[in-house]
């Protein structure tokens, strides 16, 4: 095979990969905005960084994590939670949001969720923020092509660029999202979730 043909094959493969990635990102953003129409850019980003980086912090003290979880469970209004027990994060679904509804409705125990959350948070080395930034910029390109007219878009985009430039990545849901959807969940790594928690949540 000639060098030129090899280059054309490589170029064609890369083009297909780029198109597939763009479609995957567009599918995720469409799903996010269909399910949560009050979403801001902050909320799209939060799902993406959770997908890429996992939980926001390492959890060196499981007792503090337990105390925080118990306090949150005591204040959650079950009727205000979303109807799902879990949802996959971001574009690739490397991590899963497990709703506190699952505990409040006795589908899983507090201990099971806490153990899965702590192991997921501490399980593996996080990718660099630089890699997250490159991933996020591809997502931003797709969002802008979709012309979503998200509220406070430019301000939130600048804010996210500023925290990533400082080597940080975690941020909160937008106030509009919190008011509309009352999010209460813990992040669990996908393989742990599918092996240990999903069978419990799917069991009648």
List key phrases describing it:
three-stranded antiparallel beta sheet; 6% strand; mainly alpha; 204 residues; globular; 63% helix; single chain
Give the secondary structure arrangement, pairings included:
Blueprint: H1 3-35, H2 41-53, H3 62-75, E1 86-88, E2 95-99, H4 101-104, H5 110-122, H6 129-146, H7 153-165, H8 175-181, E3 185-189, H9 190-202
Antiparallel strand pairs: 1-2, 2-3
Helix pairs in contact: 1-6, 3-5, 5-9
Helical content band: 55-70%
Strand content: 5-15%
Q: How many individual helices?
A: 9
How big is the Rg? 19 Å
Sequence of strands across the biggest β-sheet: 1-2-3
Oligomer: single chain
| Contiguous uncertain segments of 5+ residues | 3-22
Taken in chain order, the helices and strands follow as HHHEEHHHHHEH
Give the integer mean of the pLDDT values.
Answer: 87
Structural class: mainly alpha
**Cα shape:** globular
Descriptive report:
- There is one protein chain.
- By secondary structure, this protein is mostly helical.
- The protein is built from nine helices and three strands; from the N terminus they run αααββαααααβα.
- The protein has a three-stranded antiparallel sheet.
- α1 packs across α6 (129-146) and α3 crosses α5 (110-122).
């Amino acid at each position: 095979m000639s060098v030129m043909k090899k280059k054309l094959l490589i170029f064609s493969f890369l083009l297909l990969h780029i198109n597939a990635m763009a479609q995957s990102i567009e599918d995720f953003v469409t799903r996010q905005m269909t399910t949560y129409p009050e979403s801001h850019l902050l909320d799209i980003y939060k799902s993406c960084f959770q997908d890429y980086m996992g939980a926001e912090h390492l959890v060196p003290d499981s007792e503090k994590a337990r105390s925080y979880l118990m306090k949150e469970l005591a204040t959650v209004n079950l009727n205000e939670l979303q109807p799902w027990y879990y949802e996959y994060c971001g574009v690739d679904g490397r991590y899963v949001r497990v709703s506190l509804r699952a505990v409040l409705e006795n589908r899983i125990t507090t201990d099971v969720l806490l153990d899965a959350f702590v192991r997921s948070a501490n399980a593996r080395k996080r990718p660099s923020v630089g890699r997250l930034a490159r991933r996020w910029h591809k997502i931003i390109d797709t969002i802008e092509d979709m012309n979503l007219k998200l509220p406070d878009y430019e301000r939130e985009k600048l804010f996210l660029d500023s925290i990533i430039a400082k080597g940080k990545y975690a941020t909160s849901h937008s106030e509009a999202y919190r008011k509309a959807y009352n999010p209460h969940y813990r992040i669990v790594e996908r393989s742990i979730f599918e092996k240990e928690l999903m069978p419990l949540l799917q069991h009648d």
